[in-house]
């Protein structure tokens, strides 16, 4: 997915061992469709060569403010004017201090100072030893660069190159890509609290076996990510799936439909948007054996009885919060035929403002999908596309409906 298509990023490297991760970050930017201009400080060149960064970005690297390649000899002006963003990764403690002071004695600091602040955002990915990170001077400087308009991307925690363990590591390249992509998304859902259910449920029969389905959770996870990118606070109630939690999303793992109901009803008390994508089992075994159900050698098969699970979406849609229009509910319908007809009927049955239909067998486990949006007055098709693209479009559709629906 070309998430950064059309974007031009100036990637600034300062002195730190995390420079080795910047090679991968540069590659990810290029793969995501961005053009990348690398600028390195003298200290960064101690850790990685400009040759590596040139090969990965496909552009010669700038290291000096006296670079004669620029006809006007002003690389600090020319480079920053073209950028959609300047990303400093890694950004050392020293460089943060230099930004705070407005220093301009090398190309990168000069360029950051000379950037047109209103149209060229500065994003910084700090990287340092945990003691340096925790030092009051660093924390003070970080607050100051943020107050001066920079976006501080946060740090990872764990083993550090110095052998110590703690906060201050640069985020991994994939995490940085996710955060930087999110940065460019319009914050249409700022101030909203979005609750998403995702994945299958697992209804245990005994300690070994149970009943589940093919839902991969990918659509729900994409929706949680898209909601977060759009500026919402997001809670994701996930059935058993092996997917990484989108950045900045709080995740609650559950197993059965009953667990999912409990977690969802609780979180729904403070949510303002609820998107039910989970493929909740309609039935669960009437009894749950404490021990494994064994064959008795007679050839007789066990008889299983089922009871119906609660409809989570319906329960939330009927809550006081949803009925008083403080909570906008969106349902999904996994159908195998007659999508439009079933989707319309399901929306009315569940009493929700928006229902999203899709053909189950064509989407389970896939990375892309096609959706049909059904509300009280219209239907709209979102043609086949990656699930994240569809999730972003869905967030726009939800945001557009909120003002009218709330009054
Ligand atoms: N859903 C739910 N709890 C259930 C069943 C469904 O929250 N016990 C939600 C799903 O997350 C989805 C919507 O209801 O948003 C529709 O789910 P779907 O399985 O398509 O429909 P059902 O209501 O189960 O109806 P049917 O099986 O008759 O198609």
TrEMBL record:
Active site positions, chain numbering: 162 (proton donor)
Catalytic activity: N-[(R)-4-phosphopantothenoyl]-L-cysteine + H(+) = (R)-4'-phosphopantetheine + CO2; (R)-4'-phosphopantothenate + L-cysteine + CTP = N-[(R)-4-phosphopantothenoyl]-L-cysteine + CMP + diphosphate + H(+)
GO biological process, alphabetically ordered: coenzyme A biosynthetic process; pantothenate catabolic process
Enzyme Commission designation: 4.1.1.36, 6.3.2.5
A GO cellular-component term linked to this record: phosphopantothenoylcysteine decarboxylase complex
Region (Phosphopantothenate--cysteine ligase): 194-407
Record's keyword annotation contains Flavoprotein: yes
Pathway: Cofactor biosynthesis; coenzyme A biosynthesis; CoA from (R)-pantothenate: step 2/5; Cofactor biosynthesis; coenzyme A biosynthesis; CoA from (R)-pantothenate: step 3/5
Domain DNA/pantothenate metabolism flavoprotein C-terminal: 189-400
Domain Flavoprotein stretches: 7-180
UniProt keywords, alphabetically: Decarboxylase, Flavoprotein, FMN, Ligase, Lyase, Magnesium, Metal-binding, Multifunctional enzyme
PROSITE patterns linked to this entry: PROKAR_LIPOPROTEIN
Binding-site residues, CTP: 282, 292, 332, 346, 350
UniProt remark on cofactor binding: Binds 1 FMN per subunit.
Region annotation Phosphopantothenoylcysteine decarboxylase: where it falls in the sequence: 1-193
GO MF, any single term: FMN binding
Function: Catalyzes two steps in the biosynthesis of coenzyme A. In the first step cysteine is conjugated to 4'-phosphopantothenate to form 4-phosphopantothenoylcysteine, in the latter compound is decarboxylated to form 4'-phosphopantotheine. Catalyzes two sequential steps in the biosynthesis of coenzyme A. In the first step cysteine is conjugated to 4'-phosphopantothenate to form 4-phosphopantothenoylcysteine. In the second step the latter compound is decarboxylated to form 4'-phosphopantotheine.
Family: In the C-terminal section; belongs to the PPC synthetase family.
Name the record gives this protein: Coenzyme A biosynthesis bifunctional protein CoaBC
Provenance organism: Variovorax beijingensis
Gene designation: coaBC
């Amino acid at each position: 997915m070309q998430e950064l298509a059309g974007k031009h990023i100036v990637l600034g490297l300062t002195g730190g061992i995390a420079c080795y991760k910047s090679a991968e970050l540069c590659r990810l930017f290029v793969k995501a469709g961005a053009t990348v201009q690398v600028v390195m400080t003298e200290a960064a060149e101690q850790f990685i060569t400009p040759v590596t960064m040139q090969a990965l970005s496909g552009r010669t690297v700038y290291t000096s403010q006296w670079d004669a390649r620029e006809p006007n000899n002003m690389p600090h002006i020319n480079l920053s004017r073209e950028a959609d963003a300047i990303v400093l990764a890694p950004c050392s403690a020293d460089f943060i201090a230099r930004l705070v002071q407005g220093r301009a004695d090398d190309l990168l600091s000069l360029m950051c100072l000379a950037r047109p602040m209103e149209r060229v955002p500065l994003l910084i990915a700090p990287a340092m030893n945990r003691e340096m990170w925790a030092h009051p001077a660093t924390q003070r400087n970080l607050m100051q660069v943020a107050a001066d308009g920079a976006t501080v991307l946060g740090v990872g925690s764990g083993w550090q190159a110095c052998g110590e363990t703690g906060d201050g590591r640069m985020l991994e390249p994939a995490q940085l890509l996710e955060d930087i992509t999110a940065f460019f998304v319009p914050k249409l859902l700022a101030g909203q609290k979005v609750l998403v259910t995702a994945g299958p449920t697992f209804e245990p029969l005994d300690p070994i076996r149970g009943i589940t389905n093919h839902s991969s959770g990918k659509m729900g996870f994409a929706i949680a990510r898209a909601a977060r990118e759009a500026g919402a606070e997001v809670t994701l109630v996930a059935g058993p799936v092996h997917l990484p939690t989108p950045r900045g999303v709080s995740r609650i793992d559950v197993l059965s439909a009953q667990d999912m109901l409990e977690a969802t009803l609780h979180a729904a008390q403070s949510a303002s948007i609820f998107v039910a994508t989970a493929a909740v089992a309609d039935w669960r075994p009437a009894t749950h054996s404490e021990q494994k159900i064994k064959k008795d050698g007679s050839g007789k098969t066990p008889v299983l009885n089922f009871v119906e699970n609660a409809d989570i979406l319906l329960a939330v849609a009927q809550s006081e919060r949803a009925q008083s229009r403080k909570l906008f509910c969106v349902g999904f319908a996994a159908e195998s035929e007659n999508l439009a007809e079933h989707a319309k009927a399901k929306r009315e049955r569940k009493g929700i403002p928006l229902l999203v239909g899709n053909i189950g067998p064509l989407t389970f486990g896939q990375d892309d999908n096609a959706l049909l949006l059904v509300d009280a007055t219209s239907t709209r098709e979102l043609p086949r596309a990656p699930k994240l693209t569809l999730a972003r479009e869905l967030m726009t559709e939800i945001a557009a409906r909120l003002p009218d629906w709330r009054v």
